Amino acid sequence: MEHVCGRPLGLPFDKNTGDLYIADAHFGLQVVGPSGGLATQLVAEVEGHPLLFTNDMDIDEDKDVIYFTDTSTSFHRRQFMPSILTGDKSGRLMKYNRSSKEVTILLRGLAFANGVALSKDRSFVLVAETTTCRILRLWLDGPNAGNFEVFADLPGFVDNIRRNSKGEFWVALHAKKGVLQNWAVSNPWVGKALLKLPLSFKKLHYLLVGGKPHATAIRLSERGEILEVLEDSEGKSLRFISEVEENNGKLWIGSVLMPFIGIYNL
User: Fold this and answer.
1) For the chain, which ranges sit under pLDDT 70?
2) Tens digits of per-residue pLDDT, 156-192?
3) C-alpha distances in angstroms, 208 versus 57, 78, 195, 230, 238?
4) Is-contact 32 81, C-beta < 8 A?
5) CA 250, 228, 251: angle at the middle one, nearest 5?
6) CA 212 – CA 189 distance, rounded (Å)
């Protein structure tokens, strides 16, 4: 495992224009031209209310649309722990039409809406529900268009999802789930009670996750089958990873807490 510094992962480029699109947790959906400079804001509010926690996106250049998530309509980025502990289910998956500049809400009631990834043939889009540790699939085309289902149940807090050139999906797990996570999902009062106690963020985080913090990356098939699991069980190289991007025989691994990017040779 190599450690390198660099720009954050998860900033999709439009292959046709070279524009860089940004899901900014505080300022909504933005874009920067290929020459750089100040970002232009595309979406700052939906249904008359400001976006509080824009999270991830994927671009369909053929249909000229962007699929993106808003983690919560009640909590900001800095309040991600209360969002999980209270079982908040106000997250949304949305579609932004770049031509008409219209936003369509595709799914509501998501528990910490997070990573987004289109299938290779663009027939469905995946969205991560971090709190429930699962990935949902929304069909965009075909006989099931408009329907959604559970694509994969995973053993930890799902963060971003990235498709590789084969059409498979790499999933980053922020951490393994603990016993407290199951209680918080089924009994929101448990999490609310914990938030009232004089516990530090570090202590709450420790109670929520299971075992020693470490990195786990999972490769899924187009049908949601687990094909490969990479795990640094001792957390010696990486912990709390947020994204796994496959490119030219390497995995580029980002983290929301570690101050570097990891590179893993496949």
Assistant:
1) 1-11, 179-186, 188-191, 194-197, 199-207, 210-211
2) 899 999 999 999 999 999 888 776 666 666 676 666 7
3) 26, 17, 12, 22, 19
4) no
5) 15
6) 26
Token pair of 101 as six digits: 């500049």
Cα–Cα distance for residue pair 120/234, rounded to 1 Å: 34
**Residue 238 and residue 146: Cα distance in Å, rounded?**
38
Q: How many CB atoms lie within 10 A of CB 264?
A: 19
Q: What angle do CA 15, 19, 23 make, to 5 degrees?
A: 105
How far, in Å, CA of 175 to CA of 130, rounded? 10
Residue 4's Cβ-count burial label (10 Å; 0-12, 13-18, 19+) is: exposed
* Cα 141 to Cα 25: distance, rounded to the nearest angstrom: 29
Task: Give the rounded distance of the alpha carbon of 185 from its chain centre.
Answer: 18
Residue for token digits 């949902």?
136
Please state, in angstroms and rounded to a whole number, the distance separating the CA atoms of residues 56 and 45.
16
pLDDT for position 189: 67
d(Cα 81, Cα 263) in Å, to the nearest integer?
A: 28
Side chain identity at residue 230, one-letter code: L
**pTM score, two decimals?**
0.90
